[in-house]
Amino acid sequence: MRLYLASTSPARLATLRAAGIEPIVVPSGVDEDAAVREAEAVSGPLPAAEMVLLLARAKAEAALAQALAAGTPLDGLVLGGDSAFVLDGVIYGKPHTAERARERWHAQRGLTGELYSGHWLIDATNADAPRGVGATTVARVTFASDITDLEIVAYVASGEPLAVAGAFTVGARGQAFIERIEGDPSTVVGVSIPAVRRLAAQLGVNWPRLWSPTTTA
Question: Above 60 in pLDDT, residue 215?
């Protein structure tokens, strides 16, 4: 059973590979800011848990629709994912700029926040009636209180925190500055492997069917 990943996140791809799955990356091209604005124009401000699920679903459905429009239907499961970090009630996405990343690290060192990851999984094997299911997971992240200004400058200069929710990672340089994680660690990466396994089960797919052949050899 193929798994198509509607995300260009290197961390999500690496996490799935580490779990024994070799997904096919199919970028969705979703304008995340526009999608959130459209939803909030109807229902008002979205909580983080709803926002990441909304965007995960939008990415999975967009990737599937684009493939169908191109005449190359996706024969397998399509996974969309999104993440957001909440600190003191404020939702933070990707900082994008070094200035914003530095500001966030000065504000969050020594504190604890919540990383929300949304997941939407579509069974596209029946192109006439694709079925989708979703879930949001959350993990609490505590940052070290003794992170120095010099360390923040160096970390931001590495470029690593600019394109990730909350301006940090747990699988690369950023892990040195994280004191504790409460919850599924892969949630912090942006794709909860246990959650995806449960979603696959809801769609009638046994998890080992998604493992790449080299994993089971």
Answer: no
pLDDT value at position 134?
A: 98
Cβ neighbours of 211 (radius 10 Å): 15
Helix (H, G, I), strand (E, B) or coil at 69: helix
Q: Could you report the per-residue pLDDT of 156-214, keeping only the tens digit for each?
A: 999 999 988 899 988 889 999 999 999 998 999 999 999 999 999 999 999 999 999 86
Distances in Å between the Cα of 142 and the Cα atoms of 16, 86, 145, 168 are 24, 12, 9, 12
Domain 2-216, what fold?
Maf protein (3.90.950)
Domain segments of the chain: what residues?
2-216
Structure tokens, 1:
């059973």
88 belongs to the catalytic site: no
Q: What is the pLDDT of residue 214?
A: 65
Do 195 and 135 meet the contact criterion of CB atoms below 8 Å apart?
yes
Q: What is the pLDDT of residue 73?
A: 84
Catalytic residue among 82, 123, 146, 149: 82
Q: What are phi and psi of 46, to 5 degrees?
A: -95, 135
DSSP conformational letter for 216: H
Cα distance between residue 147 and residue 50, in whole Å:
32
Q: Provide mean pLDDT across the span 24-37.
A: 92
141/160 Cα distance (integer angstroms): 18
